[in-house]
Structures are given as C-alpha cells and as structure tokens.
C-alpha cells in the first residue's frame, strides 16, 4: 500500500482518524513512504470533538495496493449515523472490486455495510453497537470482543484506539513484524493481533523495562532475528561483556536469554507464515533455522 485514503463522515472521532494516520505517517518516517489523503463530501468536516477538519472532495486514482479507511463517528445507534453519499459508497465498492483493501474503525463498519462489503464476511465494531450491526447486516458474521478482523481485504476494528492495532496489523502484513514493532515502539503503544496469533507481539511483550542496554540489544535482535547473531557479537555491539549482557537481559525480560528471545521471535514469525499457508520447512528457512527440526521442537513444546 502506498496511498491511504481516509473517508471522513460528519461527527468523525479524532482518535479513530489520528491513530491509523499516525501509524502510517510513522512508517513513512522509517523509510516506508505512504501518501495520506482525506476525502469528504464537504470541504470542512465537523468532528465529535468540535475540531473542524479540511478535506478534499475529489477522489484520487487508486491502485489495488492502496487502502481506504473509514474512521468511526459519534452516534448512539448505527441507524442514526450520518448520511453517506452514493458516490462514496460506490468508491468503496469499486476499490474493493479492483483488488484493493478497505478498512473501518468503530462505527465506520456501518459504511462498509451500506456498501455491501460486509455480506458473507467476518467483521467487528465497537462493543456498544455489535448487536445492532449484526441485526442490520444479517449476512455478515459479526465477531464480538476482538480488536479487529480481516476477511477478503475487508478489515474492520473495534472502538476508537483499536484503529491503531488495525493499522499496525496492516503494516506488519506489508513490511513484516519488525517494522510494525518499530512503529509501535516509536508511538509508545503495544502491537496487538488477533485470530490464530498471540495478541501481544513478542517484540513488545518483553519491552516493559528501563534498561537501555537491553533495549539496544533487543533492537539488534529484532532487526536480525532471522540471521546468526552470536552472543559475542551482540555483547560487543552494545558495549558490555557476554556475561553482563546475559545477566541484564535475563533480569529485564523476566528470564529470557538473548538466544531464547531470538528463538521466540523466530517462532512467532514462523507461526504467522504457517497460518498464512507456508509449509513448516519453508517457514523454518524464512526465519533462519537451518532445517525444520528446531522449529518443530519449539512448536511441540510451546517454546
């Protein structure tokens, strides 16, 4: 995805919009450029927080690798949501029909429903309106109490801040989990996932400490977990002895050595690849194991 288009509806929640926009903007800062556009049916869009937004009226030409996001808006019930014009709904349908991805945050799922994009697909929304979404779109499968769902290039997320989790998920799919973790860490948030994968990324699960030396070592492992990284090289790079690094690392991460941390990252990435159709052998090679036996052992014992 290179172009991210946010479709703004009157009463839009600022965090529904700003959260995903910040994720893609931060990814751009790390060398993965995105163009962000804000489209509406009027040049000035009122928000739920009383800060008006200026938007463009014309839709850019989109390619299949681009993304349309519909942030949510303030509404006690979906049936009382603001009108969304036929042109906007057609833009959503056409983009998806051409192979593009569409996404929603919170009540934004209503727009995808009106566009006919929820029929036959899994979706979610804010817990306050999940039941109503299921009643309004009975051909959809509303998944309750998850942060987000992804089904056939239709990605929906729960309320407000979950738009950040949705965007991080898309970044991980596009650029890999290390980039998503880098973006999340820069934003001081936790990378979250759902489905068959753990909700908290291993790259951030062991970051709740204040040891700069260990953070430095983790940054190196995060970037090179699929390659050989001897303890001696790691220790020399961060400027301490091997024994000191092992002691600091184990204390900061609650018992993990640098090697065990690297294996955890490899296992998590391998599970992600296997869930998306890769064989165990292919996944093992992709994450840096010389053969699949180590991966099979780690999977068998749950690491």
TrEMBL record:
Which keywords label this protein?
A: Transcription, Transcription regulation
From the record, what ranges are coiled-coil? Answer: none
HTH araC/xylS-type domain residues are 215-303
Tell me which SMART domains the record gives.
Answer: HTH_ARAC (SM00342)
**InterPro entries xrefs:** Class_I_gatase-like, DJ-1/PfpI, Homeodomain-like_sf, HTH_AraC, INH-QAR
| GO MF | DNA-binding transcription factor activity; sequence-specific DNA binding
User: Signal peptide position in this chain?
Assistant: none
The record's annotation in PROSITE patterns points to:
HTH_ARAC_FAMILY_2
- Domain of life where this protein originates: Bacteria
Q: Does the keyword Isomerase apply?
A: no
Query: What is the protein name for this chain?
Result: AraC family transcriptional regulator
Q: Which organism is it from?
A: Streptomyces collinus (strain DSM 40733 / Tue 365)
């Amino acid at each position: 995805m290179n172009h991210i288009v946010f479709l703004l509806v009157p009463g839009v929640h600022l965090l529904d919009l700003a959260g995903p926009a910040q994720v893609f903007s931060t990814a751009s800062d790390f060398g993965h450029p995105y163009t962000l556009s804000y489209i509406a049916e009027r040049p000035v869009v009122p928000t739920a927080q009383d800060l008006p937004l200026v938007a463009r009226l014309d839709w850019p030409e989109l390619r299949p690798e681009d993304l349309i996001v519909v942030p949510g808006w303030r509404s006690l019930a979906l049936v009382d949501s603001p009108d969304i014009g036929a042109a906007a709904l057609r833009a959503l349908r056409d983009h998806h029909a051409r192979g593009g991805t569409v996404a929603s945050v919170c009540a934004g799922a209503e727009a995808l429903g009106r566009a006919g994009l929820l029929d036959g697909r899994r979706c979610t929304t804010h817990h306050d309106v999940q039941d109503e979404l299921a009643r309004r779109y009975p051909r959809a499968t509303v998944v309750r109490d998850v942060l987000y769902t992804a089904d056939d290039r239709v990605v929906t997320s729960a309320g407000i801040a979950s738009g950040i989790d949705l965007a991080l998920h898309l970044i991980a799919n596009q650029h890999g989990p290390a980039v998503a973790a880098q973006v999340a860490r820069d934003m001081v948030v936790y990378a979250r996932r759902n489905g068959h994968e753990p909700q908290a990324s291993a790259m951030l699960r062991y970051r709740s400490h204040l040891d700069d030396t260990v953070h430095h070592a983790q940054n190196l492992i995060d970037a090179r977990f699929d390659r050989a990284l001897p303890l001696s090289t790691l220790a020399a790079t961060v400027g301490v002895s091997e024994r000191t690094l092992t002691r600091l690392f184990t204390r900061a991460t609650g018992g993990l050595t640098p090697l065990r941390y690297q294996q955890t990252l490899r296992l998590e990435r391998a599970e992600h690849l296997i869930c998306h159709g890769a064989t165990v052998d292919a996944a093992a090679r992709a994450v840096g194991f010389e053969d699949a036996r180590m991966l099979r052992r780690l999977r068998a014992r749950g690491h």
